[in-house]
Amino acid sequence: MIDPRTSIINERLARIRRIIAVTSGKGGVGKSMISTALALSLAKEGCRVGLFDIDFTGPSTHIILGIPKTVQPKEEKGIVPANFEGLEFMSLVYFVSGKATPLRGADVSNALIELLAVTQWGELDFLIIDMPPGIGDPVLDLVRLIKRIEFLVVTTPSMLAFEVVRKQVELLLELKMPMVGVVENMKRDNSETIKEESAKLGLRYLGAVSYDGAVEDSIGNPKKLLEVMGASLDEIKKAAVFPKGSSK
Amino acid sequence: MHEWALAEAILASAQQIATHEHLTEISEVTIRVGELQQIEPPILRFALKQMATPPIKGAKFHILKAKSNLKCRVCATTWQYNSKKLDKSTAEAIHFVPEVAHTYVKCPKCGSPDFEIVSGRGVWLEGLKGVQYK
Fold first, then answer.
1. Cα gap A232→A166, rounded to integer Å
2. Among A63, B33, B132, B134, which residue has the fewest nearby CB atoms (within 10 Å)?
3. How confident is the model at residue A247 (pLDDT cuts 50, 70, 90)?
4. What's the predicted TM-score (pTM) here?
5. ipTM of this complex
6. Are residues A2 and B5, on separate chains, in Cβ contact within 8 Å?
7. Any idea where the domains of chain B sit in the sequence?
8. Within an 8 Å CB–CB cutoff, is residue B13 touching chain A?
9. CATH architecture for segment(s) B2-129
10. Does B99 touch chain A (CB under 8 A)?
11. What is the CATH number of the domain that holds A13?
12. Residue B113: closest CA among chain A residues belongs to which residue?
């Protein structure tokens, strides 16, 4: 017996110019905040942007965005993502009524394949994928299923985070995955350590987001989030998605 | 209609097999749909017929059902999923993404959400009959 769903995934994503997975081997480094802010910031530039939350057991991008319950995906020959603040948005939260979703590895893979097979993203400039922490099934599934996937890695200045990130990066490089670069989140000083360590791995250092208590206050308020993170995001965007000579 | 998206996936998969096996015409396609996903066979068949292109156009679509068997990983109890015991919105959520059953369904004996979907999940392409290019 053949699972037909995997045959249609790349067709579903065919009209998306770039697919960027925001990842980190370590949890708590701010992947969801960076992916949501990056998606909002790109949409503000006039790009057509999708945000796909695949942290199935701990989704949070809907909370960062503050999406009201009235904004829902539509059923139309599959599922058409919800539209909010200029983003096409999809998350498993639409199917779990705010309850816990205890999933094992194979279930995570199946849910991911299902959503990739039935979500009608349409034409986009960017699809930003907010990933769960770790190097488990979701990373391996994206590598296996999405031909044009690129990875943007988030770390904090802590070497505790970076040592885990390093292992993930080495794995992705071994798998010959395109790497967008490294974002250093919650930076508190002028240390160059992460920049230097990224260079050793052959990765571009895309920029830093300073630690700012106001980020917490911007949860649920996309406009405030862009105000708080705006300057750092401009630097990251310039390096990550609009490098010199490219057009948006 | 979720069935349309799945029909498109079935046809894409059948097309890939036809190309790989050098089939010039596909006469029959057998599909098995899991009970957990509550696919409506008439809608699925209609979507398949509407979207089929050569060499699948004109094929007969057989849609078979698979009973759902769930097994508790904690106490090994086995049971069958019954959508009639769930409210409409819950059954619909499981229809879209069967894995969210772990949010709503619990082992009838010990109450654990840690169970295995042994059978009855998703949609499967079970077989194709066709004419091979010589």
1. 23
2. B134
3. very low
4. 0.94
5. 0.93
6. no
7. 2-129
8. yes
9. 2-Layer Sandwich (3.30)
10. yes
11. 3.40.50.300
12. A102
